[in-house]
Amino acid sequence: MIDNIVEFFKNLPPKKCTECGETVSEQHECYGTKCDKCLNELI
Questions:
Q1: What's the per-residue H, E or C state across the chain?
Q2: Are 19 and 38 in contact, with CB atoms under 8 Å apart?
Q3: What's the confidence (pLDDT) of residue 18?
Q4: pLDDT of amino acid 13
Q5: Which residues make Cβ contacts (< 8 Å) with residue 34, sequence separation at least 6?
Q6: Where are the domains of the chain?
Q7: pLDDT the model gives residue 43
Q8: Is residue 37 within 8 Å of 20, Cβ to Cβ?
Q9: Are 17 and 32 in contact (CB under 8 A)?
């Protein structure tokens, strides 16, 4: 069982881009799976 939920979230690995594998800098409300570079390539 998880003793401290804050520690659980602090210890999660950083999110990776599904296209290039680069670490995604995300915001708390972000559910995206691609980095800014890969998103801009789609435009």
A1: CCCCHHHHHHCCCCCECCCCCCECCCCCCCCCCCCHHHHHHCC
A2: yes
A3: 92
A4: 87
A5: 17, 18, 19, 24
A6: 1-43
A7: 59
A8: yes
A9: no
What's this model's pTM, rounded to 2 decimal places?
0.61
Do residues 15 and 31 lie in contact, with contact meaning Cβ atoms separated by under 8 Å? no
The set of residues, in sequence order, having a beta carbon less than 8 Å from that of 22 and lying 6+ positions away, is: 16, 35, 37
pLDDT tens across 1-34, in order? 567 888 888 888 888 999 999 988 766 556 788 8
CA distance 19 to 13: 17
Give Cβ neighbours of residue 15 (< 8 Å, ≥ 6 apart).
23, 24, 26, 33
